[in-house]
Amino acid sequence: MEYDPAAYWSRVAEHVAARDPGDDWDLAGNSGPFDRYKRELTLSRLRDLPVSGRAVLELGPGPGGNLRALSAQRPSRLVGADVAAGMLELASRNTEGLGVELVQLAGDDLLPFSDREFDTSLAVTVLQHNRTDVAARLVRELARVTRSTLALIEDTTRWRRRRDQGTYFVRRSDDYAAWATAEGFELAGVTRMNLWVSERAWLLTHRMAALTQTERFPEGAPIARHERRLQTLFLGLTRRLDGWAPAVSGPTVMRFERRH
Fold first, then answer.
1. Same domain, 74 and 130
2. Is 61 found in the same domain as 181?
3. What is the total count of domains within the chain?
4. Do 227 and 112 sit in the same domain of this protein?
5. Each residue's pLDDT tens digit, 134-185
């Protein structure tokens, strides 16, 4: 079956909504200690963005966790735009009373906003879930509607070999930079969130847990209890080693500023 982001992520939203109330509601995918660790690092990077007093757009807000964090920085306007109706339902529930505007996108070609309507725009682990042609168009559209700062936080790899399949498309940061700079932006900084060792351990625990699972857990569902315990055990060590290993792949913060 061909990957349809709108339908796929609405199904994921159903699994997220069915999780226990205290079980990491702000994580769009599977929840667990590693995903929470990655989430904490991401939130720390969002606090560095120019948000206060600005009009801000997030593409693909998922269940609304980033929007809640951004609202605390008091933007003049905060908008979340997503193609998945199910995720927007979660975001609406989780940002109630915060004055956040939520917009459902009709497709992956055009954003329904005017040129340079927002001071700051961002996408967090969204483009990596879109085919390369779609991701390139979305970056162009984000650039079009952004007046000043564009931030992309995506999984990248330094290797030449790229994974471009299923629902997960890992690229080099150079690919994203080329798309943004072609639209009048300049790369202001690249920061790799170094959790390479922990990510390797996460893959190992995931595969170990899969050997004993009788069924595959869909994305968005709670992970198995024994996998959660394995992740907790490994993270106690690996998060101390992350800063020592070279970050050859993993989450990367790419910040761009408009040249003209």
1. yes
2. yes
3. 2
4. no
5. 999 999 999 999 999 999 999 998 765 555 567 889 899 999 999 999 999 9
